[in-house]
From TrEMBL:
Main location per the UniProt record: cytoplasm
Keyword Coiled coil: no
Keyword vocabulary terms for this entry: ATP-binding, Cytoplasm, Kinase, Magnesium, Metal-binding, Nucleotide-binding, Transferase
SUPFAM superfamilies: Actin-like ATPase domain (SSF53067)
Any Pfam family: Acetate_kinase
Originating organism: Spirosoma soli
Name of the featured protein: Acetate kinase
Catalytic residues, chain numbering: 149
Purpose of the protein: Catalyzes the formation of acetyl phosphate from acetate and ATP. Can also catalyze the reverse reaction.
Enzymatic reactions: acetate + ATP = acetyl phosphate + ADP
Region forming the signal peptide: none
Amino acid sequence: MHILVINSGSSSLKYQLFNMPSDIPLCTGQIERIGTEGSFIRHQIQAPAQLIERNEVIADHDVGLRQVLELLADPVTGVVSTPDAIDAIGHRVVHGGESFASATLITPAVKETIKALFPLAPLHNPINYQCIEIAEQTFPKAKQIAIFDTAFHQTMPEYAFRYALPQELYHQEAIRVYGFHGTSHRYVSKKAIAWLEKPDAKLISIHLGNGSSITAVDKGKSIDTSMGFSPLSGLVMGTRSGDIDPSVIFHLLSRGYSPDDVNNLLNKKSGMQGLTGFSDMRDIRKAMEAGDQTAALAYEIYAYRVKKYVGAYAAILNGLDAIIFTAGIGENDATLREMICTQLTFLNISLDSEKNRSPDRGLRAVNAPDSPVRIFIIPTNEELEIAQQTYDLLQGK
């Protein structure tokens, strides 16, 4: 069964094509920095091995996805001869509300629900929806399946997902913690449990990318997570503020900002973008190395927020077997991992600096030999997780 996975983020688009049940992709690719200067496409074919790279302006996800589809069916380098060779497309959709707790066949009604949730995930659900519509037009015979980032967090206990607001705001308006990046947290926590050979492991999964979140996992289930009603809360992110005092919103409104202004400010102009003028951590690192003290402070703020959550989640887990770093920043930024793990010896967390800075890639442990808590770097593979859930749904599992 040929399954194409489309994973669209706020400024990126990743994809993989699988011939399931094999977990080895026929091709993989990614588009980075969509909508900004320096955007690029990287398309890798597995057999025969071939890498195609393009540096060009990708204005939006529509342009990006159409280029991906052209690469897949290229007369010379393509891996499918016709769009009809694709049996199913698995789409990452960020927000499913309380409506979806598992992989779901996309119908007109499902699409309307995804649209209704646009206000709760304004950077993601519109893009996810757009990619679904493009895929429906390009692959009219393929089954379209939605995998929701919120699904993994449906196991949170009520005392963790409820806000201290009037009851009717939950029962009538469904205002609660939903959590996001669930596909990634699910994948890496399964890998950590297998590595530890401990089904009841207590884990903290730290997903650090343009969007960032942290999740407490007990026995393979999410019990708390940093993102809440929308993907805005929690850690400092590329353009999102993360946690702030709600009174800041009222203050801005009293100073003449409109609700749309505040929404745009917190989602698109804050975070590292607001602190430094750059949303990409690679650019911030370059600025730091050039002596930019503003960038250095922002970097410290970013690491400090993660460390606060590590402490909080170690408390609610009442113990800890491992912490996991994943996603683009988590997997690749050794300095940031060191800043987060420093002075956590009271939690039995001790980093091996040499291992941490090793050029090795892939799944690895970077804790000191005598550290009771393991420190794992586990490359996330949301695409494989989406493909597996898509396959299982269509197989009736």
